[in-house]
Amino acid sequence: MPEPHRIRLRRPWRREISAAAVCWRRHFNRPTGLGADHQVWLVWQAAGHPTARVLLNGIELCALDSSGPDARFNISGQLAARNELMIEIAQGDRPPEGDAPPGEIALEITV
Q1: b/e per residue, 2-13, with b = 16+ CB within 10 A?
Q2: Which domains can be identified in the chain, with CATH numbers?
Q3: How far apart are CA 99 and CA 80, in angstroms?
Q4: Got the DSSP string for the chain?
Q5: CA–centroid distance for 94 within its chain
Q6: Which of 15, 54, 94, 105 could form a disulfide with 9 if both were Cys (CB 3.0 to 4.6 A apart)?
Q7: Closest Cα partner for 103 from 7, 8, 26?
Q8: pLDDT tens for each residue of 74-110
């Protein structure tokens, strides 16, 4: 089986802070050249991430807790031409730092 094609979702993220959570939003376009046999996975490699919610186009993919492994979501059937990914981390004693969510977030395209 060939290696997946990986698209890292780096900048630009928009960070929003409220009393309850820190939220990062990022838009991305549907990858081009996808055929019926392709699958698109959203992968968040954030070992030790805090409690978080992951939403794609306003639909919650999952709620994660810090004890869980890295997250993988098959989003093949949920992609629009233009997409919004949102990661929301509950405020704790100290909000997460940085312009982007902790860890690495990417799309992986497999055949």
Answers
A1: eebeeeebeeeb
A2: 5-110 (2.60.120.260)
A3: 25
A4: -PPPEEEE--S--EEEE-SSEEEEEEEEEPPTT--TT-EEEEEEE-TT--SEEEEETTEEEEEE-TTS--EEEE-GGG--SEEEEEEEEE--SSPPPSSS-SSEEEEEEE-
A5: 22
A6: 105
A7: 8
A8: 999 999 999 999 998 887 756 567 788 888 899 999 9
